[in-house]
Design goal:
mainly alpha; 5% strand; two-stranded antiparallel ribbon; 115 residues; 5 helices
């Protein structure tokens, strides 16, 4: 039912939420030796989810290890500037997607009230 009401925005919100968790995990493990930073290719995951693949499966299939610009000696591939930029970009996208959904809910609410 949510697919027909919210269209692609429901899947986009869930994917952005999963990406936010992954990026937060990268930031939290910035000092962990050997930790490999990962990210979700949002466009590929959304395309996969739109074609009928489940959101969790789409996110899993689009998860990739990040290739560092400057590898550290301890094997950790987290680069804070990259992670913070990706996190901020994803947060803006999450907010925009949430606004689209909120607008749709407001429209449905007004229609039900007969306004």
């Amino acid at each position: 039912m949510s697919d027909s009401l919210f269209g692609i925005h429901a899947a986009a919100l869930e994917l952005r939420s999963q990406r936010m968790g992954l990026l937060a995990s990268n930031i939290a493990n910035a000092a962990t030796p050997g930790y490999k930073a990962r990210d979700i290719d949002f466009v590929a995951a959304l395309r996969s989810a739109a074609s009928g693949t489940g959101v969790d499966q789409a996110a899993g299939g689009a998860t990739q290890y990040r290739v560092p610009v400057m590898p550290s000696l301890d094997g950790n591939t987290v680069e804070m500037a990259t992670e913070q930029t990706a996190f901020a970009e994803n947060a803006v996208g999450y907010t925009a997607t949430l606004s689209f959904i909120r607008g749709r809910v407001d429209t449905i609410t007004r229609a039900l009230k007969g306004e």
